[in-house]
Amino acid sequence: MSTSRDERGASVPEFVLVLLVLIPLVFGVAQVALVLHVRNTLTAAAADGARAGAVLDADPGTAEHRARQIVSTTLAERFAESVDARLTAVDGVRVVQVRAVGEVPALGLWGPAVRVDVVGHAVVQEAP
Predict the structure, then answer these.
(1) Which of 17, 18, 39, 64 has the most CB atoms at less than 10 Å from its CB?
(2) DSSP code of 109?
(3) Where are the domains of the chain?
């Protein structure tokens, strides 16, 4: 199959035009995946910390320590700075509440941050 002389070299500009659409799309998907990973990890850490602090004779400090430990080992130490736990009541039931807040840079390592704020609850065990 022969091509006319006018179409020679057209594949390079076409490739560039496709890349202009494809590269931002790939980076966008990667950014969404990063934010979801951080959110899911913080949620799991908050829930596990709340369960650790809800056992008999435990205190909110135990919950906070456990959540910080999970966050610092799975994500990074900087995400563990904003973890706090407290006793509260939800519908008249005493619960341990663990809140974890993190900021994920919008471009992976730099840029404006996306704030992720999650809360985990667990019902406090009481002696019979």
Answers:
(1) 64
(2) S
(3) 7-123
